[in-house]
User: Fold this.
Amino acid sequence: MKRMTIMTAGLAGLALGGCIQVKSPDKPIEINLNVKVQQEVVVKLQRDAQDLIQNNPELFPQ
Assistant:
C-alpha cells in the first residue's frame, strides 16, 4: 500500500512537471516603506520644554 502511494505521487509529479513555470516579473518589485520617525522630534521637544522650565521657574510655579 505504501509503495503504491509513493508511485502514484511520483507519477503525478512527473505529469505536472511540464505545467509549472517560473517567470521573472516584467516590472521591478517595488517596496514601499512608510516609516514614521517621531521619536527624535518628541525628545527634542521634551528637552526644549525642560530647559524652558529650568531657566524660567517663575513662569511655571509648582
The helical segments are 2-16, 39-55. Residues 39-55 form the longest helix (17 residues). The mean pLDDT is 76. The two ends are 85 Å apart (CA to CA).
